[in-house]
From TrEMBL:
Name this protein carries in UniProt: Uncharacterized protein
Superkingdom of origin: Bacteria
Stretches that traverse the bilayer: 65-86, 98-119
Keyword annotations from UniProtKB, A to Z: Membrane, Transmembrane, Transmembrane helix
Chain spans, region Disordered: 1-21
Length: 136
């Protein structure tokens, strides 16, 4: 029978050595750096410094998104203009298919996938840099 269960009174009464050990309860992690806590507090309270840091983070992400969107629009927008200005390119065939069909019908898919993947990598790098700056 355990010492905490109610018994029929036949067991020996526990002595001072059988008392359960005291446990120390810690409410906050005292090992956390004070600067990290201050930085997180400033971000949560949206101080002027925190607003500037967050707005710079957002500007960085928007800048990379606009540059990559411009790349996609530039590449895909130049191709029709190129075929319009140089009509001889419209007559070129590659593996039995017309060059315009290949470049305008097949090229956009791997191009857009690659640009999307590149944006994802850039966004993760920006977020890691932001978290690293906050934790310093």
């Amino acid at each position: 029978m355990s010492k905490h269960a109610a018994g029929d009174g036949q067991g020996a009464t526990p002595g001072p050595s059988a008392r359960p050990r005291r446990k120390r309860v810690i409410l906050a992690d005292s090992g956390a750096p004070v600067t990290l806590l201050r930085t997180v507090d400033e971000l949560e309270e949206q101080t002027s410094w925190a607003e500037e840091v967050v707005s710079e983070f957002i500007r960085t992400k928007i800048r990379s998104a606009c540059l990559l969107a411009g790349l996609a629009v530039g590449v895909l927008g130049v191709l029709p203009a190129l075929f319009f200005l140089v009509p001889a390119l419209s007559q070129v065939t590659v593996a039995g298919m017309a060059l315009p069909w290949l470049l305008l019908g097949i090229l956009p898919f791997p191009l857009l996938f690659g640009i999307g993947y590149w944006y994802n990598v850039l966004a993760e790098e920006h977020e890691k840099a932001f978290v690293g700056m906050v934790e310093k």
